[in-house]
Design brief:
mainly alpha, Arm_rpt_dom
Length: about 1850
């Protein structure tokens, strides 16, 4: 008892005693009485303990005695009534806590405590003439009863006195369970639930036996045992979730766990049910019942309101999609919907989305209320009443407008009807009036019903008239009573209610009595009384006045009772006969005995002895090593919880669903389609701002959804084609792009049920948090870092030990976040212990590693299965984010700003950048011409400064600033206000850029930076460095990733970083800009002089890490300072290659063009045009390329257009370049439109293609493209059609010409037009008709294209559907098939169409039957009659019909057992196409029933050759085969037919784990020469390869097989060993020797096997080099691939790979390119050879050499001094310049030093003057040829060289 409860009781007793002493004065007695009652109100019956409630009962009874003595008998009776009700409630709550009752399917979905509270709140009916519910005082969770309900006292008394049934309350039959000892095997799920309920905090020990109390104490102290019990429970849920077949027994077992599951696993169990209910094509009553049971039985608080909304949405969708004829399924779904709505009302759900859920559900229920089926009618009315208790989210104002608008439409309808000229409007008006009339008729009907039944309607502007039925509230209360066993109160309620004559009330009561009667958890006596009660009510017309329709439910109840347990219900049979005489037309409609409880119901006699408890037994047998898994989950949830938050710059938090992550595949070079990738633009991903942090080979088209991250896929990085789950994933990404958000989403996804079958645990470790950790074992890491928050050391050690075991079993996903942040910590000698720990973490079975590209250490990471890049937000993500975080006005403003601003495209895909833009939305510029990237950052910084000024409590004078003041500040005033903070942030950012681009700052780094400026710039009040440090940390610009770990980390251990890398670059630019404005005297030591500034710019202007810095410097400068900066950029020490300089120049010029002198601007513009033309010259050998300079958004668009306008050659390339820009201006679009009239065909086509890439393009483009469809140039017409097709919404003026093009003679144009039309989301009716005509009359190619267009239309007019249905029935075979395709997967096909197809299957000719089967195959849902017709068609006399039927059934992922059995029989069909299609159909069934498996096993043994082959194949596609099936496949390895043996081996290979006997049989098959043939041996080898781990004996046998005489055996053995990553040295030696084998297949397999070894000895490499000259092309290719697996090859091997580029077989050359690309550095000799190949015009050698050189540009630069002048000229023109336009590559020569910049490194080398002159002259020769002489070249030379010239 709490102190407050004790105080309240004492006070109440004291007041009661005072009242007793004041009995002489009635006023004093009443005063003390009210004071006592007031005190007792503090004892809440929902929260108080049993002692407090007992004390409250005693106090109330004492008050009743005092009131009796004072003559206040009414108040005394009220006190006694409260005391009795509370006492009964107290007793019942104890009974409820200790019983595990299972409510019926229609029982109230509320907790047991709420049941007791609700029933106790009912007013007693005995002895009262009237009773009413005080609506104002009724709890919200209890629907208010109708007031002034009249009761017939005479009738109530007579039936009460004359009946002997329901005279006392009953308890459920209790089934005794023993309590398990520590680690003792559990016997049943019921025992588990009982044990876990005893361990709950709400259990009172006074209710328990001494043995149970002792068990509770010992188990609560034994955390391992408690974890064991909880783990078994959650593993049962996991097992149930992963099982594909969820039968009634499994459902009944798992739902018992609902009361003991926490919110995470309750939600997991809920989603298990909702997923399969929604995804399954069939309806399963036991699944819906199980869903309801979970909601009913869940512990309070474990299911949230959002969970209930999701469940309701799922059930509603399923109800919508259920076929109208399936009344049984609809009835059960309505039952579930009703219970969910009841629960939502009880839980006080705020509101439902009116448009998406509340309104559509309400409309559907109204429709079902008029059903002919009485069960549907009643349940729909009940659900509609339940829905009235849940409001929608429509505002009052919006609802008012809607109602007014509806009325106006009705009024307007009368006027339209009278207007004969507006036929269409008149029809619409009539339709509106008809709908309004229906609504009015319904309203009158409801009003009449309300008056007749004494219901009380309510009205509000939001909800209109609401008719709440009294029978609904009464049924809910009756349900509560009967489910609690309070039969007396149930009888009183039923027999005294004035609305007992209403149909709905009678029907509901009959259902409740029926379900009570068949529910074996109640005693037989009470169940018999229920039937007697039902019979009395049925016969007693005066009391009951039975409604005619109720006979059906009474009949069904009695039929169920007599059928299931007739011997125990003698009176039911005679009553049933009487009903049959009265209503002979009745038939059984509903089986009230739900299949949910057939297997796991407690019985009075046997308890649970008949139950199988399969899940329980499976868990205990399969997972003996998981005793502490629940404890691990609970501890990790606490560990992760502070981090699973996304915080905006505004300080608000975002849920993780709002934060999007897009993962693009980083492709292996062998899997790139280079030219195609270079040309293709991604429409859904924004242009990404250029950054030095780039990831090579990212394919932004190949995006992997997060939920599919661990799906099986081909893993090219493993060098094999087998699909597997990626285990080692590297995720790279630029700073701020969302890598840590990805980690949070992975943890969150696993917590919500994803990948539970793969991982038991997901552990996220931010690697920076391991700084300072000195341990070197996983157990120590887990104990001292992960579980440090546990309250006991023993607990930490136990959990750490258990997590290590999980990791060893491969059931832990390690997320290692931020490899780049700790790589430097592993390089020092004293940190080798940490390096070993990191290697251990990286070596785990499942690992996801995140890193910036520059921080990937391959020596640590070693191999990976999959490389990904986080590419930021897509266009849709940006829109969704903006709408989520802003109101509608602000969202529209930001979206318009993004749409019209090209430069912002590279910013908004970065989440934090978009967040800052949204935060600054009200300061965004309105004039597009004024927008620059630097200007945008200035706006964002000032917006954040205003926020910081308030946070830092800035003042102006004595006034403390707030938002209202700051809104009036000018920009310069904000700058001055935060001048000190901005200056110090600039210096800190600059220091980081200078310190090897440092982005993470320790506390000491910030202190040092503040100390070095020593108070400079702080004004009159100098600030101490420490004070400045704390101020800077409070700004919005510095963030710490350790903010949520403040309680765990000391301040000195935290690291800080700028809001985003670009903000650091902006602030560094502000610091550099200060040097252009400051005077040279009195500067602090840290400021640079003019000469130092010039040297600094010269040194870093080509450093890729400074690219954005220089752009922002240019954007911040003005006037003379800007000219001075351009002078430094254009001055001496220019980039020798040229491309890098032009990119920097273009970016700075684009940022400042409007502020430069026109003459100077024109000079820069001319220079850029010259270099653009030079790039065109270097690309002259490539017909489909684009300019890398011109396609960059930073390159001035006007310069590109002017170059295109003035150029005669390369115009098509420049037009493609313009189109390759992610966004172009209206001026550029108009220019491209004019190019459609160019006299050159290629230019016209390039212009059309470029226009097509703009999405969406303006209407001004549509007409020219439509006109191009009529041009004579067929290539232009196709390009124009493709361009139009890229738009998802075209006007009718464009669609009709495309439709006309379907009739053109040229078939390629017809197909292009059809494809263009297919991309339209909605086509006009004329276009649809033309497509239908084309399908019927066109050739097969165009007809197929037209069919696919129609298939993709979301809606088709009814006339088109009818026409297509007729074509299926009456067209020839080809047209019927195309019509079936066109109808597609249309769930909205009219019922008549489905019926027509079914009829055609039975009665049509063979063509019609075949086409009808095809049409049915495309339907997502089929009625049972259609499935049966398809099954019958499998026996059709025509093989084409049988083929089509098998194909149609094969498109259904879940078939009934009848269909599966028929398909198994079809495997034996004489026609091979039929049996083959049946085989494919069966292979698509994810899990076949046991009967089908048995039939297939028999077929494998006894069928003909093809049947055995097909059966083996089908078995192979099953995820888990029983032992008998595996044995039959092993036996089939000795089949007389080779195809059967091969297929049996394939089937065995698809099993994830094979018994050792099966592995031995496969090895024998591989070695057995007499039995095996080549392809059989290959299949056996592949099966063995698919085993992730082979037993040691098998590997030994395979090594022996390498020495076998038979070459096929040797080849197969080598093939198997190729999948083993670590082979013994002897095996590697044998494989190397096999490279000289006489059999080419042996040599090929040996080379592949060697290629999968991470490290090869020198002898093996020499053998592979020799194999590059093998006579077989495949062997040479395999040898090149194997050499490429080694990151460092000797020079001789590299030279041999260079020679292989000249191989006559293209694949050898291509593989050699890949192999050379994997080398970290190319030796100088290889560079010479590759350059020589550039001149080889024969074959592909030149292109291959060029690709290798581009991959090794840094190797070329290193070798440059040793190259000849001709070699330098060749490699400069063909490779270096092009690469420098694409990637960061620059060369500078200063004081005999050659300086090289690439993306990741800076290199320098001393060279002599002769070498310097050689390089200069070679570059000059190339540039002279292209007119790049004069000042441009002179600026390259240092001043000393200029003077010498």
């Amino acid at each position: 008892m709490t102190p407050s409860e004790h105080e309240a009781l004492e006070k109440a007793k004291d007041r009661a005693q005072s009242a007793r002493e004041a009995e002489g004065s009635k006023l004093k007695v009443l005063t003390y009485y009210w004071a006592a009652v007031h005190a007792l109100k503090k004892i809440d019956k929902k929260k108080a303990c049993a002692d407090a409630l007992t004390g409250k009962v005693d106090a109330l009874r004492e008050l009743a005695e005092v009131l009796d003595h004072s003559g206040e008998t009414g108040k005394a009776a009220e006190c006694r009534q409260k005391a009795d009700a509370l006492n009964r409630e107290l007793g019942e709550s104890r009974r409820f806590r200790m019983s595990i009752a299972s409510p019926s399917l229609t029982g109230p979905m509320i907790s047991q405590e709420e049941v007791e509270t609700k029933v106790a709140s009912m007013v007693s009916l005995e002895g009262s003439a009237t009773w009413a519910t005080n609506i104002s005082s009724t709890p919200r969770s209890t629907p208010p009863l109708a007031t002034q309900t009249i009761i017939s006292i005479a009738v109530a008394t007579s039936i009460h006195e004359s009946t002997t049934f329901f005279t006392k309350d009953v308890n459920p039959v209790s089934v005794q369970c023993s309590l398990p000892g520590p680690d003792e095997q559990l016997q049943s799920t019921h025992q588990l639930v009982y044990s876990l309920q005893l361990l709950q905090d709400s259990v009172h020990e006074e209710d328990l036996s001494p043995e149970a109390v002792q068990w509770c104490h010992s188990t609560r102290n034994n955390l391992d045992e408690k974890d064991r019990l909880q783990t078994i429970a959650v593993q049962i849920v996991q097992t149930f979730r992963s099982n594909t077949t969820k039968d009634a027994a499994a459902v009944a077992e798992v739902v018992q766990l609902a009361p003991v599951l926490d919110s995470e696993y309750s939600r997991l169990l809920l989603t298990s049910f909702t997923d399969i209910i929604c995804q399954s094509r069939h309806f399963h009553v036991h699944l819906v019942g199980g869903l309801v049971k979970v909601i009913q039985g869940a512990a309070p608080g474990s299911i949230s309101s959002n969970d209930l909304v999701v469940v309701l949405q799922s059930l509603f969708k399923k109800l919508q999609s259920t076929h109208p004829e399936s009344t049984r399924d609809r009835h059960h779904l309505l039952l579930a919907v009703s219970q969910v709505l009841d629960t939502m009302a009880d839980a006080d759900i705020g509101s439902l989305d009116r448009d998406a859920l509340h309104g559509p559900l309400k409309d559907l229920l109204r429709e079902l209320e008029s059903s002919d089926d009485p069960y549907l009618t009643f349940q729909a009315e009940y659900a509609a009443q339940a829905l009235l208790n849940i409001p929608d989210d429509e505002t009052v104002l919006k609802a008012g407008f809607r109602r007014v608008w509806s009325g106006l439409k009705v009024v307007a309808g009368f006027a339209n009807i009278l207007d004969p000229t507006a036929i269409k409007d008149s029809l619409e008006a009539l339709e509106n009036l008809y709908e309004s009339g229906k609504g009015g008729a319904r309203l009158l009907k409801d009003l009449r019903s309300a008056i007749r039944n004494n219901d009380h309607p309510t009205f509000s502007m939001k909800e209109g008239l609401k008719f709440k039925k009294a029978w609904y509230d009464a049924l809910r209360r009756a349900e509560m009573c009967i489910n609690a066993g309070w039969l007396v109160e149930f009888k009183n309620l039923v027999t005294t209610a004035s609305y007992r004559h209403q149909f709905e009330f009678q029907w509901g009561i009959c259902q409740l009595l029926g379900r009570f009667a068949i529910d074996t958890q109640w005693g037989l006596v009470a169940r018999r009384e229920a039937i007697v009660f039902l019979g009395d009510l049925y016969k007693d017309s005066e009391l009951w006045n039975r409604q005619e329709g109720v006979d059906q439910v009474v009949f069904d109840v009695l039929t169920n009772v007599t059928t299931n347990d007739g011997a125990n219900f003698e009176g039911a049979t005679s009553l049933l006969e009487e009903i049959r005489k009265h209503s002979p037309e009745l038939d059984l409609k509903v089986d009230l005995q739900s299949p949910l409880w057939n297997n796991c119901r407690p019985s009075v006699s046997t308890g649970y002895t008949d139950a199988k408890f399969t899940l329980m037994k499976s868990v205990q047998a399969q997972y003996p090593w998981k005793p502490r898994l629940y404890g691990i989950h609970r501890a990790l949830n606490a560990y992760h919880a502070p981090e699973l938050v996304i915080r905006r710059v505004s300080g608000d938090t975002l849920d993780l669903e709002t934060c999007f992550v897009n993962l693009a595949i980083v492709e292996a070079p062998a899997h790139r389609q280079k030219e195609k990738q270079d040309l293709k633009e991604q429409a859904t991903v924004f242009h990404r701002m250029q950054s030095f942090e780039c990831v090579e080979n990212t394919n932004t088209d190949a995006v992997i959804p997060l939920e599919q991250l661990f799906n099986k896929r081909k893993l090219p990085l493993r060098n094999n084609e087998r699909e597997d789950v990626p285990r080692r994933i590297l995720v790279q990404g630029r700073a701020g792009i969302g890598k840590t958000t990805l980690c949070k989403k992975l943890v969150h996804a696993h917590q919500n049920g994803l990948w539970r079958d793969l991982f038991d645990v997901v552990l996220w470790i931010p690697l920076r948090s391991l700084r300072g950790f000195t341990g070197n074992t996983l157990e120590g890491l887990f104990r001292d870092k992960i579980f440090i928050g546990q309250d006991r050391v023993q607990r930490q050690e136990a959990l750490a030990e258990a997590l290590v075991i999980c990791a060893e079993k491969g059931k832990v996903l390690f997320i290692l976040d931020g490899m780049d942040e700790i790589v430097a910590d592993t390089e020092s000698e004293e940190r080798q212990t940490f390096r070993r720990l990191l290697m251990t973490l990286l070596g785990q079975q499942y690992v996801v590693v995140t890193s910036r590209p520059s921080g990937v250490d391959s020596s640590l990471l070693q191999s990976t299965d999959l490389e990904l890049e986080t590419v930021g937000f897509s266009r849709q993500n940006v829109q969704d984010f903006v709408v989520k975080v802003l109101d509608s006005r602000a969202a529209t403003s930001v979206q318009n700003f993004i749409r019209r601003t090209p430069l912002i495209q590279g910013l908004v895909n970065i989440p934090v950048q978009l967040d800052v833009i949204c935060f600054s939305w009200d300061t965004l510029p309105k004039n597009d011409s004024q927008i620059t990237m630097t200007g945008l950052y200035q706006l964002m910084v000032r917006r954040l400064c205003c926020k910081d000024a308030i946070r830092l409590k800035k003042k102006t004078g004595e006034i403390l600033l707030n938002k209202e003041y700051l809104d009036d500040f000018e920009p310069h005033e904000i700058d001055n206000l935060m001048a000190t903070e901005l200056m110090y942030l600039g210096y800190l950012a600059f220091k980081g850029m200078n310190s090897n681009h440092q982005i993470e700052f320790q506390d000491k780094d910030i202190r040092r930076a503040c100390g070095e400026l020593d108070g400079y710039g702080t004004g009159d009040r100098p600030l101490a460095p420490l004070e400045l440090v704390e101020i800077l940390k409070k700004t919005s610009f510095l963030h710490t990733a350790d903010a949520d770990l403040s309680s765990k980390k000391a301040n000195s251990e935290r690291s800080w970083h700028f809001l985003h890398l670009t903000f650091q670059e902006y602030f560094a630019a502000t610091w550099i800009v200060r040097h252009f404005h400051l005077k040279q005297k009195g500067l602090p030591a840290e400021m640079m002089s003019k000469n130092q500034l010039a040297d600094y710019v010269h040194q870093h202007k080509y450093n890729p890490q400074y690219e954005i810095v220089w752009t922002m410097v240019a954007g911040l400068l003005e006037g003379e300072a800007l000219v001075e900066f351009f002078g430094l950029l254009q001055g001496a020490l220019r980039d020798l290659i040229g491309g890098r300089h032009q990119l920097i120049l273009a970016s700075c010029f684009n940022e400042t063009r409007g502020r430069l002198d026109s003459k100077y601007a024109n000079e820069i513009d001319e220079e850029l045009q010259k270099w653009l033309r030079f790039e065109m010259h270097t690309l002259q050998h490539d017909d489909y390329c684009v300019s890398r300079l011109g396609s960059r958004l930073s390159f001035p668009e006007a310069t590109l257009i002017e170059t295109l306008r003035s150029q005669n050659s390369w115009r098509n390339t420049l037009a493609r370049t313009l189109g390759a820009r992610s966004i172009i201006s209206d001026k550029a679009i108009n220019f491209l439109v004019s190019e459609l009239k160019d006299d050159k065909s290629r230019v016209r086509c390039s212009a059309a293609t470029a226009l097509g890439k703009q999405s969406p393009f303006p209407e001004s483009v549509i007409l020219p493209l439509v006109a191009a469809l009529n041009e004579k140039d067929w290539t232009l017409r196709i390009s124009a059609a493709d361009a139009l097709g890229n738009q998802s919404e075209l006007p009718k003026s464009a669609i009709l010409p495309l439709v006309a093009a379907l009739n053109e003679k040229d078939w390629t144009l017809r197909i292009s037009a059809a494809d263009a039309l297919g991309n339209q989301s909605e086509l006009p009716e004329l276009a649809v008709r033309s497509l239908v005509d084309t399908l019927k009359n066109g050739d097969k190619y165009v007809g197929s294209a037209a069919a696919n267009v129609l298939r993709n239309q979301s809606e088709l007019p009814e006339s088109a559907i009818i026409s297509l249905v007729d074509a299926v029935k009456y067209g020839d075979n080809g047209v019927g098939f195309l019509a079936a395709v066109a109808l597609g997967n249309r769930s909205e096909l009219p019922e008549s169409a489905i019926g027509s197809f079914v009829d055609a299957l039975r009665d049509g000719d063979k063509n019609a039957r075949s086409a009808a089967a095809e049409a049915l195959s495309n339907q997502s849902e089929l009625p049972e009659s259609a499935i049966i017709s398809l099954v019958d068609a499998l026996k059709d006399e025509n093989e084409d019909v049988r083929f089509a039927a098998a194909k149609a059934l094969g498109k259904k992922s879940a078939l009934p057992e009848l269909a599966v059995g028929s398909l198994v029989d079809a495997l034996k069909d004489e026609d091979k196409s039929v049996s083959s299609t049946a085989k494919i159909a069966l292979s698509k069934q994810f899990e076949l029933p046991e009967s089908a498996i048995r039939s297939l096993v028999r077929t494998v043994k006894d069928g003909d050759e093809y049947a055995r082959f097909a059966a083996a194949m089908v078995l192979g596609n099953q995820p888990e085969l029983p032992e008998s099936a595996v044995e039959s496949l092993v036996d089939a390895l000795k089949d007389e037919d080779g195809d059967v043996r091969s297929q049996a081996a394939d089937a065995l290979g698809k099993q994830s784990e094979l018994p050792e006997s099966a592995v031995r049989s496969l090895v024998d098959t591989l070695k057995h020469v007499a039995v095996s043939i080549d392809y059989v041996r290959t299949s056996a080898a592949e099966a063995l390869r698919n085993q992730s781990e082979l037993p040691e004996s098998a590997i030994g046998s395979l090594i022996d097989a390498l020495k076998d005489r038979n070459r096929y055996v040797r080849s197969a053995a080598a093939s198997v060993l190729s999948n083993q990553s670590e082979l013994p040295e002897s095996a590697v030696g044998f494989l190397a020797g096999l490279l000289k084998d006489g059999g080419y297949n042996v040599r090929y397999a040996a080379a592949n096997a060697l290629g999968n070894q991470s490290k090869l000895p020198e002898s093996a490499i020499i053998s592979l080099v020799d194999a590059l000259k093998d006579g077989d092309k495949d062997v040479r290719s395999a040898a090149a691939r194997a050499l490429g697996s080694q990151s460092e090859l000797p020079e001789s091997a590299v030279k041999s790979l260079v020679d292989a580029l000249k191989d006559e077989y293209y694949r050898v050359g291509h593989t050699a390119v890949v192999a050379l690309g994997k080398q970290s550095v190319l030796p100088e000799l290889a560079v010479h050879f590759l350059i020589a190949l550039l001149k080889d015009r024969r074959g592909d050698a030149s292109a291959y050499a060029l690709e290798v050189l581009r991959q090794h540009s840094h190797s070329i630069c290193i070798a440059l001094p040793q190259l000849s002048k001709d070699e330098i000229m060749s490699v400069y023109e063909r490779c270096l310049f092009q690469y420098s336009c694409r990637r960061a590559l620059s060369l500078q020569v200063q004081d005999s030093t050659l300086r090289i910049y690439t993306e990741t490194r800076e290199m320098s080398e001393t060279i002599g003057s002769d070498v310097q002159e050689k390089i200069f002259s070679a570059v000059r020769a190339v540039q002279d040829e292209q007119g790049l002489t004069g000042d441009v070249l002179q600026a390259v030379l240092p001043s000393s060289d200029k003077q010498s010239e």
